[in-house]
Amino acid sequence: MRDNDHITMVGAGLAGPLMASYLSGHGHSVEIHEKREDIRTVEQSAGRSINLALSKRGIDALKDVGVFDVISPMMLPMVGRMIHDIDGSVHLQKYGQKASEVIYSISRAFLNKTLMDHAENTGNVNIIFDHSLLGVDLDSSELVFNDKRESFDRLFGSDGSASVIRDAMDKLSSINFRRKPLGHGYKELTIPPDAKGDHRMDPKALHIWPRGEFMLIALPNMDHSFTCTLFFPLDGEVSFSTMGSREKISELFNSYFPDTIELIPDLINEFQSNPIGKLATVYCDKWHYKDKTMIFGDAAHAVVPFFGQGMNASFQDCSVINELIIRYNGEWSEVHSEFSNQQVPNGHAIADMALENYIEMRDSVNEPLYQRRRELEFELEEKFNDRFIPRYSMVSFHNMPYSKVYERGAVQLNLINGYLSGELSKEKLHESVLNGLSPIR
Fold it and tell me: What is the CATH classification number for the domain harbouring 303?
């Protein structure tokens, strides 16, 4: 390992402190600049959390740095999607077939605070709050803050989807940054505990009210409440732009989510006071600049939240960087270039899968064809468990690169569609799985 470096990082959200813990483990000193106040000392504003879904990729990273045991008591397991139909009926669609195949609801604020504490406790990490980055001069290795200019030796950007570091890279290098708005936004609402202090719905599921062009979801919290998120068009006849009155809000929920009226007692006030978040996807074709700067997490590949992988993908970035530091013995030029080569295709793949999953969650989950596909996926997984794994399971319960998941998922879907359309017999389907899918190790 080369001599220890001083590393400057921008962004103390979820991925930044995790990466700092990895870097500290190699003996590097890390200074993180964060534009917000310290969330451990100030009250959080309502309506901006979007509950987090933690799965294998994220869990493995937390275990790597030794913080998982602190976090695990605050994780709530969710075994599947509880679908709420418009007539009030509900049914559960499990995520996987094994007892271990669950995802976990966790508080963003708790996780962020815990990761900051853990990073600072390594002794090599210092976080400076209320310190907004205004610009970057990559050629002269200078950062421009709201109160001063500061030079850096090595720069890590975890400054989110509006990354200043990424914008500076884009001006000097061919990273081909593009931001693609979804045209949909989100608003958070709250289902409080019932009169006895218990959850009002099954806490072991992610609840979904799929309604075609939009949906409502709810994730359980440790205090026995649920955080609901309405994903909804920004403009159009039925959209956030037309929900300007109490009457319109009431009409929307009575028409599309009637069983939630009693569950969300402060519906109107929350809807009117909580902010609207906008959703977009960030793509870049390169995540580093020379051997001095790299971006990771949302700065490199912000995704829409419909596969529950935004945080998990960002945490896996940190794991990959750590593995590359070890592999290349701390030679940063090798680490930077290989990080881009390896992770850019994976960032694009999970971004595309998240967009596809929005359509699935808000619309397809109640279609007979979708349900038959899921049944067949589980049948094939049971019969060929070393070759056939449903795409959702590959993403959430395995560490297979997202780009490989995307490719393999497309092959599997073609086989399933071929069988369901009558083009393939059951015997030919099984033969095609054996011949067309290599064993998964």
Answer: 3.50.50.60
pLDDT band at 165 (very low <50, low <70, confident <90, very high): very high
Characterize the bridge pairing of strands 103-106 and 125-128: unpaired
H-state helical runs in 328-367: 332-362
φ/ψ of residue 101, rounded to 5: -90, 80
In a domain, residue 319? The reply is yes
Q: Is the pLDDT of residue 420 over 80?
A: yes
Number of neighbouring beta carbons within 10 Å of residue 428: 13
**Residues in contact with 105: Cβ distance below 8 Å, sequence separation at least 6, in sequence order:** 51, 52, 53, 54, 75, 76, 78, 206, 219, 220, 221
For the residues 324-329, what does the mean pLDDT come to?
Answer: 96
CA dist 134 and 330 (Å) reads 30
Q: How far apart are CA 343 and CA 324, in angstroms?
A: 11
Helical residues (DSSP H) of 53-155, grouped into ranges: 56-64, 68-71, 108-121
User: Domain end: 244, 279, 314, which one?
Assistant: 279
In the predicted model, what is the mean pLDDT of residues 393-412?
Answer: 97
350 token code pair: 């999970």
Lowest mean pLDDT of 5-9, 41-45, 53-57, 135-139, name the range. 41-45
Q: In the predicted model, is pLDDT for residue 44 greater than 80?
A: no
Q: By CB neighbour count within 10 A (0-12 exposed, 13-18 middle, 19+ buried), where does 368 fall?
A: exposed
Mean pLDDT of 68-76: 97
Q: Which one is predicted more confidently, 4 or 188?
A: 188
- Identify whether residues 251 and 323 lie together within a single domain: no
Q: Which of 279, 309, 343 is the last residue of a domain?
A: 279
Residue 80 lies in a domain: no
Residues 214 and 235 in one domain: yes
Determine the average pLDDT of the residues in 199-227. Answer: 96
| Claim to verify: residue 69 and residue 171 sit in the same structural domain | yes
pLDDT of 156: 98
Residues 333, 402, single domain; the answer is no
Residues 375 and 411 in one domain: yes
Are 348 and 395 members of one domain? no
Handedness of CA 420, 424, 427, 432 (dihedral sign): negative
Domain that holds residue 391: 367-436
Residues 145 and 267 in one domain: no
- pTM score: 0.95
Contact 31, 126 (CB under 8 A): yes
Token pair 């896996």: residue: 316
